[in-house]
Write a sequence for this structure.
């Protein structure tokens, strides 16, 4: 995150300089997106620091879910940037286009795009490897910034090759629409996390592992509920044992099942298990959800 912040500030400086010498609406849109990016990275860095704090008596499950707020905040800023870019591009077009030194400006933006592409790919890879939504969201934002830059370069090259200046604001608007889509995606992920959306692939992996273990041990399970905490998945499940099995033995088997499933799935899980008897289960829980 420190690297992302340093690069973001450097990119903002370079793009601002490029806009100052060219007056290009497309470069302005790229610089505006970088302003949002620097603000978002600063918030993401704070979120990453906070999410690493251990659970306590006030926040029993820790602070990891700040990741969903971070992704939503970044998505909202991206949408604001996109709308601002569209309005500014239209205003510059209507006021009359004055563009200079496009060669130098294009080279600066191209270099910024290449650097951001490398950084964004690294952040997304690291975020997915560590299951950090904060890093992954930031990486996708950086990649969006790089595609923005490449789109700007294409638009400026078209202006240079054809001499038709409206390619500049049209490119800025196209870039803004792409940014708008990216921001919407981040907000959807944020809302899904805060609303405890159960990822079908994660659920499938957990239930497959539970099925294998329970069958091998002559037991059953039901009432699986999942909650993403950011980097971990909380699994709430009911385990059913024979009525005559001693509580101590059932608890030992349940712990073994939890540990085995934790090793089999490709993400961090934390279990909360409820032990029941399948012999009298329907009597004790006649209205339980199926």
């Amino acid at each position: 995150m420190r690297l992302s912040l340093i690069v973001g500030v450097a990119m903002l400086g370079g793009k601002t300089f490029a806009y100052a010498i060219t007056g290009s609406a497309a470069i302005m849109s790229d610089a505006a997106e970088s302003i949002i990016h620097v603000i978002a990275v600063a918030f993401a860095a704070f979120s990453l620091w906070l999410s690493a704090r251990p659970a306590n008596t006030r926040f029993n499950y820790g602070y990891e879910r700040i990741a969903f707020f971070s992704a939503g905040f970044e998505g909202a800023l991206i949408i604001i940037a996109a709308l601002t870019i569209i309005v500014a591009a239209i205003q510059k077009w209507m006021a009359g286009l004055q563009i200079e030194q496009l060669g130098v400006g294009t080279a600066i933006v191209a270099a910024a795009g290449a650097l951001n592409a490398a950084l964004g790919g690294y952040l997304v890879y690291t975020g997915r490897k560590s299951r950090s939504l904060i890093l992954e969201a930031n990486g996708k934002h950086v990649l969006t910034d790089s595609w923005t830059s490449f789109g700007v370069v294409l638009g400026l090259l078209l202006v240079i090759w054809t001499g038709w200046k409206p390619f500049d604001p049209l490119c800025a608007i196209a870039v803004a629409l792409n940014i708008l889509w990216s921001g919407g995606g981040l907000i959807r992920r944020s809302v899904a996390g805060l609303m405890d959306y159960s990822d079908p692939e994660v659920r499938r992996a957990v239930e497959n592992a539970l099925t294998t273990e329970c069958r091998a041990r002559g037991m059953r399970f039901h009432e699986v509920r999942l909650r993403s905490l950011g980097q971990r998945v909380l699994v709430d499940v009911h385990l059913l044992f024979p009525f005559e099995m001693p509580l101590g033995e059932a608890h030992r088997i349940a712990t073994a099942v939890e540990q085995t499933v934790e090793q089999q799935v490709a993400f961090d899980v934390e279990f909360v298990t409820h032990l029941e008897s399948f012999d009298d289960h329907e009597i004790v829980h006649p209205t339980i959800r199926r």
